Amino acid sequence: MTHDLPPVRGTLTPNRPLSDLTWLRVGGPADWLFQPADVDDLAAFLGALDPEIAVFPMGVGSNLIVRDGGIRAVVVRMGRGFNHIEIDGERVTAGVAALDAHVARKAAAAGVDLTFLRTIPGAIGGAVRMNAGCYGTYVADHLESVRAVTRSGQQVELAASELNLAYRQSDLPDGWVLTQATFRAPLGAPDALMARMDEQIAKRDATQPTKERTAGSTFRNPAGFSSTGRADDSHDLKAWKVIDDAGLRGATKGGAQMSEMHPNFLVNTGGASAADLEGLGEEVRNKVFQNSGISLEWEIMRVGEPAPE
Predict the structure, then answer these.
(1) Which long-range contacts (CB under 8 A, 24 or more apart) does 136-139 make?
(2) DSSP track, 124-144
(3) Annotated catalytic, 299?
(4) φ, ψ at 22 (rounded to 5°)
(5) pLDDT above 90: residue 154
(6) Positive or negative CA dihedral for 57, 63, 67, 70?
(7) What pTM, to 2 d.p., does this model score?
(8) pLDDT at 83
(9) 2 phi/psi in degrees, rounded to 5
(10) CATH of 81-192, one of 3.40.1280.10, 3.30.465.10, 3.30.1360.120, 2.40.440.10
């Protein structure tokens, strides 16, 4: 119950369903959903919270399947107090709730080239956690530092190197909550940067099911990337290609489907459960392995518990 938890200035909601907070629109309830008012509210709460209670930071749910039984934890979701964007010369500092696309646009207007963020779904916190990238550029290429609150409530600053950013992953201890990130990027003409982003959007919309309920790429590319997250031209295996080669474009399970347009996109066609989506993904992994010997790794994070029998 909420009276067992520390007092907050933000919002603390018990048994909060999470389906409306994820792009795939599935998922059971969190034991508690905490929306901190600001970083001091977050730090005080985590510092006073029973260490036995799990903490799960959640962004805008763009790369997430919450299982149907929900999450036995305090889910921390950052909101308006964490969506600031500040620009100083070549440096851009953004709160973790700032949308990637908004950061890209505001930086471009100021003549700073973070255009690679424009087509990445979600917010800055998730982009950092996953070392998100697009068109050959990754967060690791431009990230200087982050600020976070530890599970014990300490406010810390970390250099990007301390996160050990790799392909679609980073090292951050369980229960730590990112609060902001600082990037450094080259300068460019605002008009040219805006035009580049327009081209990226047009290319994305022509090749990806952007009008559907998806969570971005479902599986990581199985090879062709170095440990730093940069492309390696000596290999060019793509997840969508091995899925297509296994005859799984358009495959379905319940209300879940591998997109006809781009077979590495898992789609909720309407009424899918988390079990449908994850189950279809596992069927794809098994059939791709049988067909090619390649073991696909999930890019979408799956959390929580299945629905009770």
Answers:
(1) 136/230, 136/231, 138/165, 138/229, 138/230, 139/165, 139/183
(2) HHHHHHTT-EETTEEHHHHEE
(3) yes
(4) -120, 150
(5) yes
(6) positive
(7) 0.90
(8) 96
(9) -65, -25
(10) 3.30.465.10
Tens-digit pLDDT profile for residues 5-22: 999 999 999 999 999 999
Catalytic annotation, pick one of 105, 168, 213, 220: 168
Q: Domain map of the chain by residue range?
A: 2-78, 81-192
Options 217, 259, 273, 278, the catalytic residue:
217
Q: 290, 283 in Cβ contact below 8 A?
A: no
Cα–Cα distance, 86 to 54 (Å, whole number): 32
The label of the residue with tokens 């792009």 reads 23
Q: Which residue has the tokens 């749910």?
A: 61
Give residue for tokens 């520390």: 6
> Which residues lie below 8 Å from residue 32, measured CB to CB, with a gap of 6+?
2, 5, 12, 13, 14, 15, 16, 73, 74, 75
Class of domain 2-78: alpha beta
- What is residue 223's predicted lDDT score, i.e. its pLDDT? 66
209 pLDDT higher than 50: yes
Please tell me the distance from the alpha carbon of residue 57 to that of residue 148, in angstroms, as a whole number. Answer: 11
Q: Which residue of the set 129, 145, 278, 299 is catalytic?
A: 299
Question: How many CA atoms within 13 Å lie on the side-chain side of 42?
Answer: 29
Quick check: is 91 catalytic? no
Same CATH fold assignment for domains 2-78 and 81-192: no
Residue 217 annotated in active site? yes
